[in-house]
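Researcher: Structure prediction, please.
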Amino acid sequence: MSSSYDVAVIGGGIVGLATALTLTRRGVRLVVVEAERDVAQHQTGHNSGVIHSGLYYQPGSHKARNCTEGRAALLRFCAEHGIPFECCGKVVVAVDNNELPALDELERRGRANGLQGIRRLSAGDIKDYEPNVAGVAGLWVPQTGIVDYRVVARKFAELVAAQEGTICLKARVTGVERRRDELILRTTQGDIRARNLINCGGLHSDRLARRCGLDPGLQIIPFRGEYYEIIPERRHLVKNLIYPVPDPRFPFLGVHFTRTIHGSVEAGPNAVLAFRREGYSRWQASPRDLLGYAAYGGFWRMAWKYWRTGLGEMYRSFSKKAFHRALQRLVPELRCEDIRPYGAGVRAQAVAPSGALVDDFRFVEAERMIHVLNAPSPAATASLSIGRTIAEMAGRNFGLTLKDRATTV
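Model: Predicted structure follows.
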């Protein structure tokens, strides 16, 4: 490609596209470089479609700020462009008294993050929202919703192209060469020249950072989340969204029930180590990825710390009955024959050298570069806010003159 761009955004997931949308609306000449045949092929296209409220996140964190702002922006965007969504609310359930302190903390965080209308529920109150759920207490969170993020991401891409941004598909980045005035991206579609780079590479963000000469200070370890769905005849057991009280040691929310915007009801996910960065089935494996785990001390420290939990997740992956028992804690009337395999997604989990699971968003700036090294849930909900945050960083770091926005979204 002979053209030179102000910015190359690597990654056509929802975060990369939201960043590109913000920058093209501000007059930046830009290319999105995506390895797959279409946008939104990995984390964006394999999640459950939940519009998160901001309940779980530490007040003041990147997650909390971006989720609150991003949710409002996402809802305005969907309404403006006719994308179906629904603010249906969810119930978070404590199934026994041991979970009450954690439920108290969730309520505190939700109120600190500005959520309105949160209601503490007794065991009887829970039945008003979800008649088939069993628990000793709960929270009603009205801000939670559902949408199809693939539709949102494709609309982002459509608008980027309409504003003279370029989207280059099937262009896997194999190397980055620094020149005095520009960067040369070596891709499977030829070289792409750009003065600046934004890495939104998701599952490969750490590798891309290293190709750019940066030590990311972490490694992406992929975790597969496997889903079941409730058969149509039994969908009435779940009215909207039902979540457990999450284990505070992990950035995962536990198996839950989600009604989708298309009418199905998903159950899951678990969280098992994937043997390949795009390992959507338990049989997909990559020798390169496995060797990468083995060579990383942070992986072994993580494995030593959480081996018992990991074995439990693996057992649930192979045993439908075990998966069913975990779901039945929330909905006792659910029978094993009421669920069937539905699909899986892969989460790009950043792991620190200490073995700690990086929980918050992680942005790293370098000369003429911005690297998004950790953007887990609620990144899809927060994508427009994250895009604005990165655009502001780009204005400072890259010396770009950003025009006033043409739109409020």
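Model: The chain has ten helices and 20 strands.
Researcher: Thanks, that helps.
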